[in-house]
């Protein structure tokens, strides 16, 4: 079921009532039942994939924990040298289990999501020798949220291996973590420890907390239905016939698409965060006003935060601290004198993997990988030239701390991100190149009117202003929702009615709008 | 203590780490800087900093970094 | 305790104001002038403007029928009063409830029910492995949505927000607005259909959206109102095939009623029909040229086969209909003369006579 559908509203409503009526120690069971129901109504028999992944990590974690407990028991009786030997031995066994489980779980993801992509590569190589395709194209259906729950499963078992958390003895609790319905559709990526602690806390019916969550849900619906789906309704038509339009149209389309993607993704995240908050469970934050970022680096710490955090924790750090990487580091230090370049090479080496994975996670196509590497290249360029641009700025008397420079930085980031989104949207590099080039060659401001109807434009402009204001207030650290709850009810009710009625009347859903499903749920 | 400060200066020059109280939380060092720092610390003190050690609490002040290094030296 | 009371009272007030606003916006958005914005089920104002008990036949169905049957032509040629009571994506359930309301002010002798919106083929896409439970969620969603739609018209008319003016918010809206189109959507647009005629599918045909159940209800409703039922099907590019026809033919036999399927054996029914000139959107719906042909055929069968006689209406009604026909053909000729072809944004359709230049 879609999260902006009436049946989802009814589903949440029923779950909500049961959740607060039932004895508090069974609240997690209500969430588990609801999550399973949600999962099954989306994926039917494909649920078996998810159950398989859960079983693998549950038993794997149990195995790892067994060796940890064994060491903890035995270490007191042993002298130091033998203790170290035992530690190494058991660590090796734990690592074997970890690697096996992670490999199996990732293999399931790869086989279902990347099967055709890999098949394409094999066929591509084979085409040198033969004209027939070695591997056929499979029509594989994906279970709900496989890209999300697989990575969260990896995080669970890795955390157990690292000793950050203890393996859970109740398989149902692990299952709840994996298929928890707010974060299964589009994320965010949560850590087991954070969620489990909250699942075990009894949750009283707190009127303020519930309102706090409900306002977020309303705002999310507003962003998704009024802004994102509205653009999603007319923009594809423009892109389908883009050859008939000028480069200005491409530019407008690119900006609108970025706006749509942000409103859609952040709107959906708001809805599910709000819903989860209404149950007293806070999920990881995913957006922190990303378009106020001064660098791409910062942008990816404010956009899809939980993905960046996952990659940092489970790809970046392990690769950077691995033995193999140490060798690379030592090698470069030996042969290159400049500290700056050594530092740069070490970072560039590890980050390549991170950005390759980031791109690849988004989709099974070379274009997504290029998308990840696009940001990688720009970031590395920035990092490499940092000392030189600093010197240049000093010479030209440009103050890098000034407000004017900050504005320049923000504008620069916005431009880079927009171009990145155009790349993201294109189906091939050639198409991207054509569109990108077109923006500079043919200009026709009248295309603005032919792409957007006046009334839609007004709605989008108002929506933009609303989102901008909310962003500015949040950037200042003010919790708007708490402010609304604590202040005069008249203002609060006006906000409620504005959000509700603009969503009901202006929402791009129903007859005449053709449903626009959440973009990020296809992952 | 002095060695740690020297290494910090090497990784990120022109920053006052001595008096800083929230090196990670305030963004004085980002994750890439941390990794470089860890590499240097591992080399200098012959220790093995683990991923589990990469938490803000261990890097927010120079004292915390020193404490972590000393703890890891002892463990071996 | 006092705080809880306060909260409960405030919540109730909030809900009451919310529902009140919902009704207010429903009122504002309920389409006033059909000609200004051709929207779903926006015809009650125009339907109610017809004098009571003056309509002899009703046409019910979805967009394929309101693009195909032109009541003004039937009046001009055969002097029979008819009304096109259909709108886009009409569902059988909606058809039943709308007919119920229609019978309150009119007593037609025949109701023509279009069969396309009741029938579909079991698509290839349905996969038991993955879709069975999705159907359940979808079904529940439709039920909730349907109920809300009926309770709060705001859901149906919300797309007309684009055409609101200040007066819509404050003035009293007229309940009856005379229409010269009588539910027909006049369009001169032509987008040829170049594919083969007929749906290419070997799938079994089945009833959609509880079509069978609601057809029974419609049949019984008509019987209670001394009205005949006739099944129809309009020409479609590639949405109809033999399986679907047979299913409806079986239904017609079961109820012992007539069934005119103008899509099956189209060449025999309408030898001069052409997919190049007679469709407005590549086969989905007909344009004015196509509607002329289909309506011509329909009125012929109404008289020869179904025994329709010229309507017995009062002199004032007759005069009014003659005026409507006059206006209608002025607009039609005006549009035709300007050779409205595909995607001309200047002329929103259909037009009101006021929009015409003074002497044409």
Automatic annotation (TrEMBL), chain A:
Keywords: Acyltransferase, Cell membrane, Membrane, Transferase, Transmembrane, Transmembrane helix. The chain crosses the membrane at residues 5-22, 28-61, 97-126, 138-157, 341-361, 367-384, 454-473, 494-521. It is found in: Cell membrane. InterPro entries: Ac/AlaTfrase_AlgI/DltB, AlgI, MB_O-acyltransferase, MBOAT_fam. It is a multi-pass membrane protein. GO terms for molecular function: acyltransferase activity. Signal peptide: none annotated. Pfam families: MBOAT. Its main location: membrane. One of its GO terms (cellular component) is plasma membrane. Belongs to the membrane-bound acyltransferase family. PANTHER family: ACYLTRANSFERASE, PROTEIN-CYSTEINE N-PALMITOYLTRANSFERASE RASP. This is MBOAT family protein. It comes from Ruminococcus bovis.
Automatic annotation (TrEMBL), chain B:
InterPro entries: ACP-like_sf, PP-bd_ACP. It comes from the Bacteria. Coiled coil: none annotated. Residues 1-73 form the Carrier domain. Transmembrane segments: none annotated. Gene3D superfamilies: ACP-like. This is Phosphopantetheine-binding protein.
TrEMBL record, chain C:
SUPFAM superfamilies: SGNH hydrolase. The keyword Transmembrane applies. Keywords: Membrane, Transmembrane, Transmembrane helix. The chain crosses the membrane at residues 7-26. InterPro entries: SGNH_hydro_sf. This is SGNH/GDSL hydrolase family protein.
């Amino acid at each position: 079921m879609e999260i902006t559908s009436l049946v989802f509203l009814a589903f949440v409503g029923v779950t909500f009532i049961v959740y607060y009526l039932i004895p508090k120690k069974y609240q997690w069971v209500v969430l588990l039942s609801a999550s399973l129901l949600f999962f099954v109504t989306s994926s039917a028999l494909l649920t078996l994939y998810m159950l398989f992944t859960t079983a693998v990590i549950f038993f794997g974690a149990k195995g790892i924990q067994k060796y940890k407990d064994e060491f903890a028991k035995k270490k007191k009786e042993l002298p130091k040298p033998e203790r170290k030997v035992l530690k190494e031995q058991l660590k090796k066994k734990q690592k074997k289990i970890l690697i096996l489980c992670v490999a199996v779980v990732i293999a399931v993801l790869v086989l279902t999501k990347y099967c055709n992509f890999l098949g394409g590569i094999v066929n591509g190589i084979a085409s040198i020798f033969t004209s027939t395709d070695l591997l056929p194209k499979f029509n594989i259906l994906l279970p709900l949220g496989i890209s999300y729950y697989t990575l969260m499963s990896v995080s669970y078992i890795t955390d157990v291996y690292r000793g950050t958390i203890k393996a859970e003895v109740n398989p149902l609790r692990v299952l709840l973590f994996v298929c928890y319905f707010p974060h299964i559709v589009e994320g965010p990526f949560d850590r087991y420890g954070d969620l489990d602690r909250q699942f075990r806390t009894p949750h009283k019916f707190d009127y303020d907390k519930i309102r706090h969550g409900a306002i977020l849900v309303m705002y999310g619906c507003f962003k998704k239905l009024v802004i994102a789906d509205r653009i999603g309704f007319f923009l594809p038509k423009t892109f389908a016939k883009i050859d008939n339009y000028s480069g200005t149209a491409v530019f407008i389309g690119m900006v609108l698409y970025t706006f749509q993607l942000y409103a859609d993704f952040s709107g959906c995240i708001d809805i599910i965060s709000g819903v989860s908050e209404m149950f007293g469970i806070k999920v990881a934050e995913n957006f922190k006003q990303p378009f106020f970022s001064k660098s791409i680096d910062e942008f990816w710490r404010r956009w899809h935060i939980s993905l960046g955090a996952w990659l940092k924790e489970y790809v970046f750090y392990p690769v950077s601290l691995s033995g193999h990487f140490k060798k690379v580091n030592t090698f470069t230090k030996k042969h290159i004198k400049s500290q700056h370049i050594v530092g740069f090479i070490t970072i560039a080496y590890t980050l390549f993997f991170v950005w390759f994975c980031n791109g690849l996670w988004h989709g099974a196509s070379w274009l997504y990988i290029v998308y990840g590497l696009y940001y990688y290249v720009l970031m590395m360029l920035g990092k490499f030239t940092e000392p030189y641009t600093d010197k240049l700025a000093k010479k030209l008397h440009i103050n890098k701390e000034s407000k004017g420079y900050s504005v320049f930085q923000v504008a620069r980031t916005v431009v880079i991100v927009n171009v990145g989104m155009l790349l993201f949207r294109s189906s091939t590099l050639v198409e991207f190149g054509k569109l990108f080039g077109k923006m500079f060659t043919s200009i026709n401001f009248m295309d603005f009117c032919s792409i957007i109807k006046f009334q839609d434009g007004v709605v989008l402009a108002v929506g933009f202003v609303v989102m901008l204001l909310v962003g500015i207030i949040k950037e200042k650290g003010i919790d708007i929702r708490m402010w609304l709850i604590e202040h005069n009810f008249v203002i609060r009710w006006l906000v409620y009615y504005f959000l509700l009625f603009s969503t009901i009347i202006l929402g791009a859903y129903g007859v005449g709008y053709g449903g626009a499903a959440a973009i990020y749920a296809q992952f | 203590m002095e060695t740690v400060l020297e290494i910090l200066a090497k990784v990120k020059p022109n920053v006052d780490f001595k008096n800083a109280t929230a090196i990670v939380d305030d963004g004085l060092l980002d994750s890439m800087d941390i990794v470089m720092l860890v590499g240097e610390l591992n080399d200098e003190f012959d220790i093995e900093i683990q991923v589990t050690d990469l938490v803000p609490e261990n890097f927010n002040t120079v004292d915390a970094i020193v404490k972590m290094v000393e703890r890891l030296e002892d463990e071996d | 305790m006092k705080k809880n009371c306060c909260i409960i009272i405030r919540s109730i007030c909030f809900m009451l104001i919310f529902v009140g606003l919902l009704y207010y916006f429903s009122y504002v958005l309920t389409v006033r002038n059909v000609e200004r914005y051709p929207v779903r089920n926006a015809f009650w104002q125009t339907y109610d403007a017809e004098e009571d008990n003056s309509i002899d036949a009703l046409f019910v169905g979805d967009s394929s029928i309101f693009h195909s049957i032109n009541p003004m032509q039937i009046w001009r040629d055969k002097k029979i009063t008819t009304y096109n009571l259909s709108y886009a994506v009409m569902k059988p359930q909606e058809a039943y409830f709308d007919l119920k309301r229609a019978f309150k002010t009119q007593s037609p002798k025949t109701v023509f029910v279009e069969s396309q919106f009741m029938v579909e083929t079991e698509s290839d896409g349905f996969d038991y492995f993955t879709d069975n439970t999705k159907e359940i969620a979808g079904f529940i969603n439709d039920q909730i949505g349907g109920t809300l739609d009926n309770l709060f018209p705001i859901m149906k008319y919300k797309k007309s927000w684009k055409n609101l003016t200040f007066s819509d918010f404050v003035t009293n809206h007229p309940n009856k607005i005379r229409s010269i189109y009588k539910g027909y959507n006049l369009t001169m647009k032509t987008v040829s259909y170049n594919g083969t005629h007929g749906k290419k599918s070997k799938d079994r045909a089945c009833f959609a959206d509880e079509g069978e159940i609601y057809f029974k209800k419609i049949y019984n409703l008509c019987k209670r109102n001394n009205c005949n039922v006739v099944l129809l099907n309009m020409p479609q590019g590639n949405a109809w095939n033999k399986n679907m026809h047979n299913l409806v033919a079986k239904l017609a036999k079961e109820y012992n009623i007539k069934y005119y399927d103008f899509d099956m054996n189209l060449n025999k029914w309408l030898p001069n029909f052409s997919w190049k000139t007679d469709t407005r959107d590549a086969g989905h719906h007909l344009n004015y040229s196509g509607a002329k042909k289909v309506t011509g055929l329909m009125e012929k069968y109404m008289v020869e086969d179904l025994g329709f006689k010229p309507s017995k209406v009062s002199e004032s009604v007759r005069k009014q209909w003659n005026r409507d026909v006059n206006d209608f053909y002025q607009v039609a000729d005006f549009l035709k003369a300007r050779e409205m072809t595909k995607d001309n944004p200047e002329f929103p359709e259909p037009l009101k006579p006021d929009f015409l230049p003074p002497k044409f």
